[in-house]
Each structure stands twice: as structure tokens, then as C-alpha cells.
Amino acid sequence: MTAKTPKTPKKPKDKRIGLFVCHCGVNIASVVDVEKVAEALKDYPGVSVSTDYVYMCSDPGQQMIIDTIKEKHLDGIIVAACSPTLHEKTFQEAAKLAGLNPYQIEIANIREQDSWVHSDKEKATKKAIRIVKSHVEKAIQNEDLAPITVDVNRRALVIGGGVSGLQAALDIADHGYEVILVEKAPSIGGKMIQLSETFPTLDCSQCILTPKMVEVSRHPRIKLLTYHEVDSISGFVGNFKVKIRKKPRYVDETLCNLCGECEKVCPQIVPDEFNMGLSFRKAIYMPFPQAIPGTYTLDAEHCLGLSPVRCGKCKDVCEKKAIDYDMKETILEE
After folding, report:
1. pLDDT at residue number 46
2. Cβ neighbours for 211, distance < 8 A, ≥ 6 positions apart
3. With a threshold of 0.70, does the pTM exceed it?
4. Burial of 320 (0-12, 13-18, 19+ CB in 10 A)
């Protein structure tokens, strides 16, 4: 890890803050009285300079910011303008040219969050003043930050095995990165696999999705975890730690050969979720014929073998001894 050492921060009460209010042509100025906003903040605690300009993002506007930072020895600035998504980087670069830490910049959004959503000029102006005041308070507390470089764990977690999750996993894996794909249901496929036709070709969903499901299950860089749920995520970008809860299927996937004898003898009949409750399934079942992984799952909520009744018929007929009533929930860490 490498980092630049930031300067020793000033105490909040000693910081000198500059406010620059942008007209954004008429985008802001037609609804918000920008001169009034600048005037209202002129004597606000911590504010050393407060001014406005027609286009702060323009070359003259940026130069005004640079010159003012240098002349007034500012420790932080607020630009009251448009969304930070659009021009935060612009003003950070201007601050750097003036020798100011770029993370001492606050963007008060008085366009998308004020002028564009209001028509009453007086109320919009009062709102703009409140927005800017909140950013002044934050700017006073801001400290210099420094960019760092960290090693990145070059693996990806994809949550959800529907069509979008499958495609995301394939795209990442095909670019050479390991993927962990977590699906909470017994099989991947999501909602799309339940559709009878898909737009625009009107092909059946199985015709489109099943090959993709198979490709995911066979991909050497995709670790497929069905009947699992993400329990917690900690860490930071590039170095997340994930706890994944493995739900008991009560059927050993490595032993089950899909003979179907367990399903035949199961006495418990319940509504079938795959067919939206319009048909029925047994308490031990495959979600649908093309399910991946191709194995049975025992529905613990309805299985009599897991209840005090201790039915046990499915276990008795399983020649492969794949059914295990003693399976427990486990936690994996990735």
C-alpha cells in the first residue's frame, strides 16, 4: 500500500471557507436568487469569502476559484451549482492547481435538488441557503485525504442466478476472472425460466436460457453456489469478505442419480412454486426438469421425515443413500 501523507489538518474553528455560487446560465438563476444566496452566507461562521458567477465550470469561473483560494488562503471551498456527478472532478482539479487538497471541496447541488424541482423563487432561494449552510458545516469538519493504492482481490461476487446474473457471471469469467455466483433458490434460472415465451422471437424461455445455465455450471472460472444466501459483506472495494449461508438440501448432490424413486413414494403434496401454485409437487422435488444443479431438494417445511412423524419413505427407497436428514446449515467465507 502506498499513500501521500496529508498536511496536518487545521482545527475546524480556524478553517477559512470560500463559497462560490453558480448561476448555471438560467438553469439555477431563473428560480434561485443566487446573489441573495451568496449574500446570506457572507457572514456565516467559517465563511471567509462568498461570491457568485454565471458559469463556475467555465474557464473564467475556474480561474476565479483558483485565484481566490490563493489570495484568501482558503482551507476549503463550496461550489453551489449542479450535481457533483457532473463537475465534482472539474472543481477538484481546479483546487489542486491552487494547491488545495481536492477533498476539501464540497459541491452543494442547488440545481437538480432545488431549481429544477421548484417554481417558487422565494422558497427555492431559502432552500438553497439551507443546502449551502449544511455543506459549510461539513467543509469546516473536512480533513485532507490522500489517494492510496491497494492490492485488489481479482474475483467477483454475483448475487442472483437469473438471466442477468448468469450473463454477468459469464462476461466476467470469460475475461479471465474468477466468479462466485450465489443463488438462494435450489436452481439457477430465476423468473425467466418460468416464462412460456420470450420477446421478441417468442421462443420458449428454456430454449434461450437453458444453454446459458449449462455454460455457467461448466465454466471453469465460475463457482456456482445454489441454495445459498449471502449472510454478510464486510471490507472495502477490491477487498470484500463475504459470509455465505449454505442451506441444507438434505440430498447429497454427488450421490443423487435422479432416479425419482424418492419423489414417487413421498406422501406429501404441496403447491408448486414454479407453476405459480397452479399445479402440485412433492415435498422432495426438482424445481423443473432443466434445473441446475440436476438434483432433488427436500422441502424442510413440508417434509414429514424431518417432522416428529419421521416418515422416512424417501430415505428408505434411495439406493444411493443420498438423503441425509441430519444435514445442517453451514457458513462459508470467501
Report:
1. 96
2. none
3. no
4. middle
Residue in this structure with the C-alpha cell 433458490, named with its chain if needed: 185
Q: With contact defined as beta carbons under 8 Å apart, do 39 and 52 qualify?
A: no
Cβ(246)–Cβ(332) below 8 Å? yes
Domains in the chain with CATH codes: 14-141 (3.40.50), 155-247 (3.50.50.60), 261-327 (no CATH)
Q: Are 142 and 106 in contact (CB under 8 A)?
A: yes
Residue found under cell 476539501: 104
In sign, the C-alpha dihedral spanning 4, 10, 11, 16 is negative
Nearest to 212 by CA among 187, 189, 194, 228: 189
pLDDT tens, position by position, 23-52? 999 999 999 999 999 999 999 999 999 999
- Give the burial string for 80-92 (b: 16+ CB within 10 Å, else e): bbbebeebbebbb
126 to 17, 81, 129, 166: CA distances (angstroms): 21, 15, 5, 49
Contact indicator for 68, 100 with CB cutoff of 8 Å = no
